[in-house]
Amino acid sequence: MALAGDLSEFPLTDIIQLVQLSKQTGGVQIQGQRVGQSIDGWLFFRDGKIIGATSPGMPPLDAVYTFFTLTSGPFKFHDDKRIDTPTITISNEVIIMEGIMRQDAWTRIQEHIPSMNLVPRLVLNPTTGSAEINLEPEEWRILTMVNGKNSISQIAQRSGLGEFRACEIMAQLLQNGLVEVREPSPGETLAPEFERIASGFLGAGASALLEEAYRLAGVPDPSRATGAELMAVVDHFERGVTRMLDPARAREAAAKLRSRAQELLN
């Protein structure tokens, strides 16, 4: 089936319903955009039913619901892309209903979190007054990770709550005046993006290669790196990947890192 387009014109709900009606088997490759984030992944179908999804660092269901929050980016159906064992067993209808709710909730979250790269910090004297602060355990977990250095993206990844729930809590903390945000430095913006992209190519081995690339580029603290230093990191990373993978694959990984760096630095 020839199915391709852009999520800005053909939303995920329509994609799912079309594949379901035609009872197709295969995978939809998604390269989406959302609040300055690039999110890549696959949505898998068997006879029109969703049976799995993948996106770096996300469980299958979280990946599906994240795809609903993407506002643009290309997608394409591949009938030769399949998975052997289903990782999702709930119905398409339930997924669509939950996905639409997530989409609406994410729109509200974006009012307080226009970018996942923003760095939150504690408000020293919140107007609510300390006696009125009453937080649930999950909210305390997020609040204790706010240190003026971790980006919202990093906090969400490390919280163990999933990106959506972590951002939902962060938006509430911002709304309540307990935290505030500042614009991140180039290093704070790109370091987590480098990690995400590199992991997509190398899996668990990406962190070690990136650490070595930072060392060779003379960058002891990635969060303080300049744009020029980060581009040098990519050069060293490419050489390191070449020793593990074929040169073409190494060039592809480096090109994606450079492209993302240029997007965020310009």
Descriptive notes:
Residues 4-106 form the PatA-like N-terminal domain. This is PatA-like N-terminal domain-containing protein. It holds the Pfam family DUF4388. It comes from Candidatus Viridilinea mediisalina. InterPro entries: PatA-like_N (IPR025497). This protein has helices spanning 12-22, 60-68, 92-110, 137-144, 152-159, 163-175, 186-202, 206-216, 227-242, 247-265, and strands at 4-6, 26-34, 37-46, 49-54, 74-78, 119-122, 179-182. Strands 1-5-2-3-4 form a five-stranded antiparallel beta sheet. The protein has 266 residues and is of the alpha+beta class. The protein folds into three domains: 4-101, no CATH class; 111-182, Arc Repressor Mutant, subunit A (Orthogonal Bundle); 186-265. Helices cover 49% and strands 15% of the residues. It contains ten helices and seven strands. The relative contact order is 0.10. It starts with a strand and ends with a helix.
Descriptive key words:
266 residues; alpha+beta; Arc Repressor Mutant, subunit A; 3 domains; 5-stranded antiparallel beta sheet; two-stranded antiparallel ribbon; 10 helices; globular
What is the oligomer described by this structure? single chain
Q: Major sheet: order of its strands?
A: 1-5-2-3-4
Shape: globular
Question: How many H/I helical runs?
Answer: 10
Mean pLDDT: 89
Distance between the termini: 38 Å
Order of helices and strands: EHEEEHEHEHHHEHHHH
